[in-house]
Amino acid sequence: DPDRLPVSYEEWEARAREVLEDGPFYYVAGGAGGEETMKDNLQSFTRWKIVPRMLKNVENRDLNVELFGKRYDSPLLQAPIGVQSIIHEGGELASARASAALNIPYIASSASTRTMEEVAGVMGEAPKWFQLYWNKDPEVTASFVRRAEASGYDAIVVTLDTPMMAWREKDLKNVYLPFLIGEGVGNYFTDPVFRSRLGAPPEEDPAQAVMHWTKTFGNPGLTWEHLLFLREHTDLPILLKGILHPDDAKKALDFGVDGIIVSNHGGRQVDGAVSSLDALPPIVEAVGKELPVLMDGGIRRGADVIKALSLGAKAVLVGRPCMYGLAVAGEQGVHEVLRNLLADTDITLALCGCSSIAELNESILQASKG
Ligand code: FNR
């Protein structure tokens, strides 16, 4: 039955491979360099084993978590992913709608094809966060933050691991960078400050606008002190995404940010970097009492969610699985992927002998002997 949707992550990925051309498929599925970190993000989960507890009455369960004074129904969020127009014509609006239907926070990427206002527009009151790429032009950065506040986003996620694109061999082989063909620039081309820097509007001279985008997108000159600029421009909670070193986690605390997302960008930036799950415990140890620590990278099944939360993550972000759902079946595909992950998480929680997320801790984990 060709209309039957996949269940396993592996089958979603295989079906996405069938429907996408090489360029877009490998843009999503690929990583930096030899993809060692991308693979280790998954393998590191197998290095922890769950030791379930019995006879704990798990009849009534609740997956809710509290973050920054707000209740969320579950510890899952959609990771920020740009240029979703290359995956499905519904793009970010389809993913955002799927999130809203399940009340799973959607983190809108700066590099989206559809604008943050359009994304917010299809989500109603559902929870949404905005991911900020810090533009070289500080006024563009400030404008993005203002727009995010005005359109109802609940938090700002600053991604720190992408001051430039990494060496991605699959994209180099396919000569594929979606931004250069005008995808993923929706927030920029509609931004009043960005537009004011151009000789002609992007609608009249797209090539020039893309050129200006390439010159200003990445900001390798950023330092910790720049975070103070952001703090002055918003009262929303600020999370730093891409922290891997416990000393950076401590610096985040010193600079007054509100949360951390342990991430290596899905293995797409530093090949050979520590896996997200391996990076998590030392960071929780360093700052977990003071700051919520979230993580992403390699979350594929309920057991992965349970392991990450047991090691101290307050919530986890899901990246590629949603994109394979999007490729295969648009909004319905993303919805199915997330709904299945929620169900798997709930069942696994119960089978581990827990009725709430707060009960999870390292006592149900054992480092693998294998
Ligand atoms: C990403 N990621 C990402 N992160 C971010 O902060 N802003 C962005 O625009 C993007 N864009 C993006 C595109 C694609 C195609 C992928 C696969 C990833 C990284 C993403 O938020 C997240 O960190 C990883 O995807 C998590 O790993 P998994 O779940 O894909 O293993």
Describe this structure in words.
The protein has helices at 9-19, 22-29, 36-46, 91-102, 116-123, 138-150, 169-174, 186-189, 192-196, 206-216, 226-233, 246-254, 276-287, 302-310, 320-351; strands spanning 48-50, 65-67, 70-72, 76-78, 106-108, 128-132, 156-159, 238-243, 259-262, 293-296, 316-318, 365-367. Helix 1 runs antiparallel to helix 15, helix 4 runs parallel beside helix 5 and helix 4 (91-102) packs parallel to helix 15 (320-351). The strands form three sheets. Strands 4-11-10-9-8-7-6-5 form an eight-stranded parallel sheet. A two-stranded antiparallel sheet has the order 1-12. The chain is 43% helix and 12% strand. The chain starts with 8 loop residues before the first helix and ends with a strand. The model has no long low-confidence stretch (mean pLDDT 98). The protein is α/β, with parallel strands linked by helices. The site of ligand FNR has 23 residues, from helix 2.
Summarize the helix and strand pattern as letters.
Answer: HHHEEEEHEHEHEHHHHHEHEHEHEHE
Structural class: alpha/beta
**Into which percentage range does the β-strand content fall?**
5-15%
Estimate the mean pLDDT confidence: 98
- The tally of helices reads 15
Distance between the termini: 39 Å
Low-confidence stretches: none
Question: Biggest sheet, in brief?
Answer: 8 strands, parallel
Note the overall shape: globular
Radius of gyration: 20 Å
Strand order in the sheet with the most strands: 4-11-10-9-8-7-6-5
- Overall strand count: 12
Task: Identify every distinct bound molecule in the structure, by name, code or SMILES.
Answer: ligand FNR
Task: Please bin the fraction of helical residues.
Answer: 40-55%
